[in-house]
Automatic annotation (TrEMBL):
<keyword id="KW-0949">S-adenosyl-L-methionine</keyword>
<feature type="domain" description="SAM-dependent MTase RsmB/NOP-type">
    <location>
        <begin position="172"/>
        <end position="450"/>
    </location>
</feature>
<dbReference type="GO" id="GO:0003723">
    <property type="term" value="F:RNA binding"/>
</dbReference>
<keyword id="KW-0808">Transferase</keyword>
<protein>
    <recommendedName>
        <fullName>16S rRNA (cytosine(967)-C(5))-methyltransferase</fullName>
        <ecNumber>2.1.1.176</ecNumber>
    </recommendedName>
</protein>
<dbReference type="InterPro" id="IPR006027">
    <property type="entry name" value="NusB_RsmB_TIM44"/>
</dbReference>
<dbReference type="InterPro" id="IPR001678">
    <property type="entry name" value="MeTrfase_RsmB-F_NOP2_dom"/>
</dbReference>
<keyword id="KW-0698">rRNA processing</keyword>
<dbReference type="InterPro" id="IPR004573">
    <property type="entry name" value="rRNA_ssu_MeTfrase_B"/>
</dbReference>
<dbReference type="GO" id="GO:0006355">
    <property type="term" value="P:regulation of DNA-templated transcription"/>
</dbReference>
<dbReference type="InterPro" id="IPR035926">
    <property type="entry name" value="NusB-like_sf"/>
</dbReference>
<dbReference type="Pfam" id="PF22458">
    <property type="entry name" value="RsmF-B_ferredox"/>
</dbReference>
<dbReference type="GO" id="GO:0005737">
    <property type="term" value="C:cytoplasm"/>
</dbReference>
<dbReference type="GO" id="GO:0008649">
    <property type="term" value="F:rRNA methyltransferase activity"/>
</dbReference>
<feature type="binding site">
    <location>
        <position position="335"/>
    </location>
    <ligand>
        <name>S-adenosyl-L-methionine</name>
    </ligand>
</feature>
<comment type="function">
    <text>Specifically methylates the cytosine at position 967 (m5C967) of 16S rRNA.</text>
</comment>
<feature type="binding site">
    <location>
        <position position="289"/>
    </location>
    <ligand>
        <name>S-adenosyl-L-methionine</name>
    </ligand>
</feature>
Amino acid sequence: MPSPRNKSARFVAITTLCELQKSRTPVNTIFTSVLTEHPLENNDRQLAANLIFGLLRNRESLDIMLQYLCRQPLKKFHPFVLQALRVGLFQIMYLDRIPESAAVNESVKALQAMHLPKRLHGFVNGVLRNAIRKREELLSLTENPASPILNHPEWLTKSWEKRYGRLETLRICRQNNDQAALSLQINSCVTDRDTFGKILSQNGINSHSGKYCYNTLILEDFNGTVHEIPGFTEGHFQIQDQGAQLLAHLVGPMTDKGEYLDACAGVGGKTSVLIQMAKTPMASVAAAEPDKGRRTRFTENMKRLHPDLDIPLFSGTLQELATITSKRFHGILLDAPCSGTGVIRRHPDIRWNRRPEDLNRYQEIQLELLQAGTTLLLPGGTLVYATCSLQEEENEQVIERFLAANTDFILEECSASLPSKAHSLCNKNFFAPLPGNEIDGFFGARLKRLAEASLKTLKR
Ligand SMILES: C[S@@+](CC[C@H](N)C(=O)[O-])C[C@H]1O[C@@H](n2cnc3c(N)ncnc32)[C@H](O)[C@@H]1O
């Protein structure tokens, strides 16, 4: 029996998935805490991550197959047994490089390590061996084009069907079930895309330029960790989707000597893009973030990407900042907390973690943040509202309610702030890319506060 200190990749994957089933904590947070208790070597950690993420992308298909193999409803299974079956079946059905016998044996061993009764070991062994025998039959269950298995909850696909139509919804789901390529945002304060592309190529890493942003290189077939990419420690790049970069672009063009705020800065991904944009007109950038863990990562990232700058970071909420300072900004990026339904491809747990009732709760928070943003904005300034959600409740409805309550603001079109390659991602006045091959799903709106003079004319 494995010692308590020496658990397998499968055990860690099953334990992580069991914890995820109990709470709505992001899977990465749970995985990190399980790894603290049961550390794994690099290869095993990578395998555990592949099992967890791959399984979350295919959960509905796996459950249909499991239900075909077992008479008892899956809901009645012991949680560890259900996850051990899913992990075993995922390897049998979708991972070519793992021998089928290893997939079965490792699930059974995980049950042993958990000290579950022997009859359950026999049950899992039997179901998975049956799956090997019936592999083709099982595949046909989910490959029937008449009833596509989307591997997303119904409330979400229904909301997308209403908004984008059936075909587009199928495309988004297929996109979300594929693994995304790594997208590097090249730090223009340190290097440029072509020079950095050559360095990658000299190190045997293939890359191609991003379709929508100039400063992007896409690594389609890179399987290592980010630390293995040359130039990481020296701040030559950060990992960032092109849509996320373009949201920061919406704040521009920047005013000469203007002052800008990244109001929900997180770990500083968009703060760095704002700093890169601010280089030429010598504008300045500040940030606010209430979460301590994120602030620590913000500071690490800024040290790596902009070691010569001291970026002011407010440790608190935007509402708190709005009450304690008299400072006013030319532009504010408000990348609001949201459901994240546009970035499911990179965070496959989101689809199972969210509930329809979350959307209205987020809407209230988003409006409250926008209102705090107005306090901090100069007349004539621009407040950029951004989410990584595809839901109307968090996007158009928020803007509609905001404009109704704030008559000194108008909606400006987004395309003028974006590179021409990205104009096709705008819909009416909004920046609204749907998840695609090279981009995640986002929403952005430019809210301009009228200057005092324009306000007076309006009132007359
Ligand atoms: C979508 S994330 C931002 C990601 C970030 N802009 C980036 O590019 O890495 C939203 C962030 O808003 C922060 N947040 C939540 N409530 C807030 C509040 N009341 N004021 C300011 N930030 C808040 C969260 O901690 C989180 O980091």
